[in-house]
């Protein structure tokens, strides 16, 4: 057990609530990984549910489908508002695309939530190989490299100043490509830790959620600016 994993286990169980955007994709796997590291994990489908979470996971799946459904259900604006207001958010694979400010190789008009100052390329590894697995060292994750599963994954083509690159592919045709980033309380990985049983990336995120909760949640228990109403979509 790593230090991070241990600290997540030893803090009060369920002291933070982390939502998983549950429109499409591997929602169940993220809920299980979050619960395993001691968070209260809940699906988020409606704008009002955003007000009840301390952090949010955008799962893997299909970013265009998720964005279309989010728009149809009136969630896109509230999601943008929540991320902009500082809601800690972790995007894996399609979730990374949704968090990115700029997307290459996207169908015309693809919407994102944005907030993460990166340019990602969709299906970036596809030219070499559709899906593959590789060991990736992730800064902030102790205990050795993460076994990273890539499935029609994006990579980060360009990260602005202020975005920390916390993981790159080592070896193979995609050597050096950026596949994990962090900007404040936003985290994104090209790969799917929720599919491997290794909960260290989720533990890292839940620790960020705890730290942000201490900063943002005041005595009234609300995150400033995050509510059920409002956002344009
Ligand atoms: N290629 C998908 C997309 O663009 C992402 C794949 C995944 O999440 N495994 O949304």
TrEMBL record:
<protein>
    <recommendedName>
        <fullName>Pyridoxal 5'-phosphate synthase subunit PdxT</fullName>
        <ecNumber>4.3.3.6</ecNumber>
        <ecNumber>3.5.1.2</ecNumber>
    </recommendedName>
</protein>
<keyword id="KW-0456">Lyase</keyword>
<dbReference type="GO" id="GO:1903600">
    <property type="term" value="C:glutaminase complex"/>
</dbReference>
<feature type="active site" description="Nucleophile">
    <location>
        <position position="93"/>
    </location>
</feature>
<dbReference type="GO" id="GO:0036381">
    <property type="term" value="F:pyridoxal 5'-phosphate synthase (glutamine hydrolysing) activity"/>
</dbReference>
<dbReference type="GO" id="GO:0042823">
    <property type="term" value="P:pyridoxal phosphate biosynthetic process"/>
</dbReference>
<keyword id="KW-0663">Pyridoxal phosphate</keyword>
<comment type="function">
    <text>Catalyzes the hydrolysis of glutamine to glutamate and ammonia as part of the biosynthesis of pyridoxal 5'-phosphate. The resulting ammonia molecule is channeled to the active site of PdxS.</text>
</comment>
<dbReference type="Pfam" id="PF01174">
    <property type="entry name" value="SNO"/>
</dbReference>
<dbReference type="GO" id="GO:0004359">
    <property type="term" value="F:glutaminase activity"/>
</dbReference>
<feature type="binding site">
    <location>
        <begin position="61"/>
        <end position="63"/>
    </location>
    <ligand>
        <name>L-glutamine</name>
    </ligand>
</feature>
<dbReference type="InterPro" id="IPR021196">
    <property type="entry name" value="PdxT/SNO_CS"/>
</dbReference>
<feature type="binding site">
    <location>
        <position position="122"/>
    </location>
    <ligand>
        <name>L-glutamine</name>
    </ligand>
</feature>
<dbReference type="InterPro" id="IPR002161">
    <property type="entry name" value="PdxT/SNO"/>
</dbReference>
<feature type="active site" description="Charge relay system">
    <location>
        <position position="192"/>
    </location>
</feature>
<dbReference type="InterPro" id="IPR029062">
    <property type="entry name" value="Class_I_gatase-like"/>
</dbReference>
<dbReference type="GO" id="GO:0005829">
    <property type="term" value="C:cytosol"/>
</dbReference>
<keyword id="KW-0315">Glutamine amidotransferase</keyword>
<dbReference type="GO" id="GO:0006543">
    <property type="term" value="P:L-glutamine catabolic process"/>
</dbReference>
<keyword id="KW-0378">Hydrolase</keyword>
<feature type="binding site">
    <location>
        <begin position="151"/>
        <end position="152"/>
    </location>
    <ligand>
        <name>L-glutamine</name>
    </ligand>
</feature>
<comment type="similarity">
    <text>Belongs to the glutaminase PdxT/SNO family.</text>
</comment>
<comment type="pathway">
    <text>Cofactor biosynthesis; pyridoxal 5'-phosphate biosynthesis.</text>
</comment>
<comment type="subunit">
    <text>In the presence of PdxS, forms a dodecamer of heterodimers. Only shows activity in the heterodimer.</text>
</comment>
<dbReference type="GO" id="GO:0008614">
    <property type="term" value="P:pyridoxine metabolic process"/>
</dbReference>
<feature type="active site" description="Charge relay system">
    <location>
        <position position="194"/>
    </location>
</feature>
């Amino acid at each position: 057990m790593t230090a991070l994993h241990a600290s997540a286990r030893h803090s009060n169980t369920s002291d933070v609530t982390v939502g998983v955007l549950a429109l499409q994709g591997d929602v169940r796997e993220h809920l299980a990984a979050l619960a395993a590291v001691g968070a209260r994990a809940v699906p988020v489908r409606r704008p009002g549910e955003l007000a009840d979470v301390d952090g949010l996971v955008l799962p893997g799946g299909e970013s265009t489908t998720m964005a279309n459904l989010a728009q149809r259900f009136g969630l896109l604006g509230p999601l943008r508002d929540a991320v902009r207001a500082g809601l800690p958010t972790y995007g894996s694979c399609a979730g990374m695309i949704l968090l990115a400010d700029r997307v290459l190789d996207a169908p015309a008009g693809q919407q994102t939530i944005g907030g993460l100052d990166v340019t990602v390329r969709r299906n970036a590894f596809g030219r070499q190989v559709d899906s593959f697995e590789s060991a990736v060292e992730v800064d902030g994750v102790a205990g050795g490299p993460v076994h990273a599963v890539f499935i029609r994954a994006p990579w980060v083509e360009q990260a602005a100043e202020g975005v920390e690159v916390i993981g790159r592919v080592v070896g193979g045709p995609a050597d050096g490509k950026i596949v994990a980033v962090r900007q404040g309380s936003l985290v994104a990985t090209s790969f799917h830790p929720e599919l491997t049983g290794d909960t260290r990336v989720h533990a890292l995120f839940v620790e960020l959620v705890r730290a942000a909760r201490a900063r943002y949640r005041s005595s009234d228990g609300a995150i400033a600016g995050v509510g059920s109403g409002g956002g344009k979509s």
